[in-house]
Every structure is written in structure tokens, then in C-alpha cells.
């Protein structure tokens, strides 16, 4: 059965843009000792923009941009959308036909073949690193400014690197501070690389982070938190967050998240505001006092 105080708290939450799927979750909120946050779309807005592009000498930028559009048109990843918006500086992407033989590699990027050339666009996991590469200095500098790097490879040779910046949500810093003041442990889980993860974690005030996460790595991180803390919350938005949302004692999805994240979560923040999650903690406290 559900207490009147709980029922009232659920309806109050709904009016304020927080969808709580069961009263039990609201009651348990007060017990949360640790929160794991996804990065892209959760701590950040999730709408990256291209800020830099570096082309290997001897390569043609327009050809590279055209390949990117041909391949990324088939992807709905925010990085793909950002690169297609950026392509407008060089060509009309609506006139470029998407390639049919494109493959998405989860947590890594996309690959396709053109006239016997293998093109790959994604992160470091997608290609073999060479020691003496032309882009290393630029890549390192970009990562340190919290930018995400995308590598464009032709036959396993990096022909371009692209940097993208995703803004941190306006209320992220304040929310993290509040959780810390409540004595809650926080950690960021991200598919992004180590250095970018470190830079973002530093910007938002998180001391702990796990980088280069595949979806199952997020689950592992959750389980390891649960060894130390009784009640662990996970906040995310992506398909890749769904398994971790299910593993957490309380799963929270951003309203703009993917369907599977919204379905898996116990709580949905309709307006994508972490500040609302802080409100919910306070509401839970008041409610538990009444009960
Ligand atoms: P996240 O939401 O943390 O970025 P994802 O699992 O969606 O996690 O992706 C992990 C990484 O895989 C991305 O950060 C990116 O480096 C790479 N990636 C995935 N899809 C694409 C794509 N369409 N184009 C380029 N890179 C991609
Ligand atoms: Mg995300």
C-alpha cells in the first residue's frame, strides 16, 4: 500500500517535472550514499559542436568532409550530428548520399568501405595506434581542454582529427556541490577517453571518474560502488546507460534521453535538470518525516 504522504509527494514531483514511478523509490532516496553520473547528455547538454579540425598534410579536406557525411548520415549519435552540421562550411550535406554499407561499432564509432578503402570514424579503440603520429601534440592539447576527439582513418591511417566541445549543463556544478554537502559520494562514468574525462570531471567538481566505458563497464562500476555503499543511484540518458540504470538501486533518466533509458529508469527528470533531483531529495526527506 502507499501512504497518503507518499502519494502527495509523487504528485508534487510530477507537477515540478519529476516523474517518480513508485513511492518506494521516493522513500529510498534519503538512503542514497553514492551517485554515478553519465557524462554526455547528463552532466553536459549533449549537443557537441565541432571546434577544431586538423588534416594530415597531403590530404584533401573536402574529400574527408564528404566521406564523414556519407558515413555519419547513417548514425544518430550526437557526435555524428555535430559533424554533419559542421560540414556545411564545405559542402551541402543534403546533396551527399549516405553510404549503405556503414557499420556502427558500439562504444567506438563507425566504419565503411569506399572503392576498396576502409574508412573508420571514432575514438582510439577503433584503430591501431602508431607511435610516431603527426597529430599527437594537437590531440593531447585538445583533450586537456575537455574536448572530445574523433579520429578519421583511411586504411588505418589517421587522415584527420576533429575536436568537439559539449557544454556543461547550467545547473550541474551547483547540483554536484549540494550532493557533496549531503555527504553523497559522486562518480562520472563515460565512454570518452581518459584525459577528456579527467578534464570534465575537474570542471564539474567530481574527483572520481571511469573513462572509456563500454555499457557493461558502467554496470561493473555500479556493482563495485554497491560493494561499498548500500544504496547507489545512477543518472543517465543513453542506450548505453540502460544496463547501469537497471543495476542501480535507483535509476534516474534525463527526459531528453533515449526511450530505453526512460523505460528502464525509476525516476525521469522531464526538463533535464539535475537541480530537480536535488529538490526530490529534499521532498523525500520531508515525506519520510511525515511517514
Ligand atoms: P558516450 O555517450 O559517453 O559518448 P557512446 O557509447 O555513445 O558513449 O560512444 C562512445 C564513444 O564512441 C564516443 O565517445 C565516440 O568516441 C565513439 N562513437 C560512437 N558513435 C560514434 C559516431 N557515430 N561517430 C564517431 N564516434 C562515435
Ligand atoms: Mg549520455
From TrEMBL:
Where in or outside the cell it occurs: the entry states:
Cell membrane
Q: Give the family per the record.
A: Belongs to the cation transport ATPase (P-type) (TC 3.A.3) family. Type IB subfamily.
Q: What is this protein called?
A: ATPase
Amino acid at each position: 500500500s502507499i501512504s497518503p504522504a507518499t502519494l502527495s509527494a509523487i504528485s508534487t514531483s510530477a507537477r515540478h517535472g519529476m516523474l517518480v514511478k513508485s513511492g518506494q523509490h521516493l522513500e529510498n532516496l534519503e538512503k542514497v550514499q553514492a551517485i554515478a553520473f553519465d557524462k554526455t547528455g547528463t552532466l553536459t547538454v549533449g549537443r557537441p559542436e565541432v571546434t577544431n579540425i586538423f588534416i594530415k598534410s597531403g590530404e584533401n579536406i573536402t574529400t574527408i568532409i564528404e566521406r564523414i557525411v556519407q558515413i555519419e548520415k547513417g548514425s544518430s549519435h550526437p557526435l555524428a550530428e555535430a559533424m554533419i552540421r559542421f560540414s556545411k562550411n564545405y559542402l551541402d550535406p543534403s546533396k551527399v548520399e549516405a553510404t549503405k554499407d556503414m557499420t556502427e561499432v558500439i562504444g567506438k564509432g563507425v566504419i565503411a568501405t569506399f572503392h576498396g578503402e576502409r574508412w573508420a570514424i571514432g575514438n582510439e579503440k577503433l584503430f591501431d595506434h602508431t607511435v610516431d603520429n603527426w597529430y599527437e601534440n594537437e590531440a593531447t592539447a585538445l583533450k586537456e581542454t575537455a574536448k572530445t576527439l574523433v579520429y578519421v582513418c583511411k586504411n588505418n591511417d589517421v587522415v584527420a582529427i576533429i575536436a568537439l566541445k559539449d557544454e556543461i549543463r547550467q545547473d550541474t556544478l551547483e547540483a554536484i556541490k549540494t550532493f557533496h554537502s549531503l555527504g553523497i559520494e559522486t562518480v562520472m562514468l563515460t565512454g570518452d577517453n581518459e584525459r577528456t574525462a579527467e578534464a570534465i570531471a575537474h570542471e564539474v567538481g567530481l574527483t572520481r571518474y571511469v573513462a572509456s566505458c563500454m555499457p557493461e563497464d558502467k554496470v561493473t562500476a555500479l556493482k563495485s560502488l554497491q560493494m561499498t555503499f548500500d544504496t547507489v543511484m545512477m543518472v543517465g540518458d543513453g542506450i548505453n546507460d540502460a544496463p547501469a540504470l537497471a543495476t542501480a538501486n535507483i535509476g534516474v533518466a534525463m527526459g531528453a534521453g533515449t526511450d530505453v533509458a526512460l523505460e528502464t529508469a525509476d525516476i525521469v527528470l522531464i526538463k533535464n535538470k539535475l537541480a530537480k533531483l536535488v529538490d526530490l531529495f529534499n521532498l523525500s526527506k520531508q515525506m519520510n518525516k511525515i511517514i
